[in-house]
Amino acid sequence: MHTDLVAALDIGGTKIAGALVDGDGAILVRAQRPTPAREDGETVMGAVEAVLGELTASPLWTRVHSVGIGSAGPVDASAGTVSPVNVPGWRGFPLVARVRAVTGELPVELIGDGVAITAAEHWQGAARGHDNALCMVVSTGVGGGLVLNGRLHPGPTGNAGHIGHISVDLDGDLCPCGARGCVERIASGPHIARRALDNGWRPGPDGDTTAAAVAAAARAGDPAALAAFDRAAQALAAGIAATATLVEIDIAVIGGGVGKAGDVLFAPLRRHLASYATLSFVQGLTVVPAQMGTDAGLVGAAAAALGRREGAAAAGV
């Protein structure tokens, strides 16, 4: 039984979740608020403070030694700021300083949400036991993170492994990030649905045009739906193979809503990967679905806070 705990925050455009987490990754206390994403920055921070208020009110709070935050990005861990695309009131918002102020100046570790999910999958999920891994979230956007040499590799600003913005199509569509042909522009849920619709797929009577509906149609054999998933799988394969070639990962873990599509995604993905990951040192690369589910962001934020403490202890030795 670990006597010391960490506080974890998982901040996204829909919800702000908080938890007290022990050294084994068990969630002992939870708190949550909807994200007032359309409001000004102080209102959003008010929701964060409400979540933290519930956590600090717990009798277990006295055992908390640090705080981990996984936030929608971009984040800048070196500056302690966040600028989530889907929370316009936060641009260069000093989240780390504000959280420290609320928590009695505890140390705070900030990482991007893709990196947080990577930390969770490496600690307790599908990447467990792998020293070199890429973990991806494929949903409304495409994010990710890296584990290298057995350690989370967030990079100086906390965004390393952001595979969604590797370009895999030199003359592809313009991405909102400013580049062309990004993985996200092809493989995200909305773009899978858009491609299927453009090529003749029609939703059922319920009018559902999500990637999940396209996946259902693909499983039933709809050619436009199958082609949209095949194109997404090809983009993901190119991005994963490029990453593996650069840093020698041996496993890629895929989560998020699109990652739940099953064989409709993974069968063409593995086929395309074989044609992109061709060099001898990446041929053993495996691709698997994520295991951590909805708590991944919280567990990963906790892992980052625990890792910070271990690093500090090691540095003191």
Automatic annotation (TrEMBL):
InterPro entries: ATPase_NBD (IPR043129), ROK (IPR000600), ROK_cs (IPR049874). It holds the Pfam family ROK. Gene3D superfamilies: 3.30.420.40. SUPFAM superfamilies: Actin-like ATPase domain (SSF53067). Belongs to the ROK (NagC/XylR) family. This is ROK family protein. It comes from Streptomyces roseirectus.
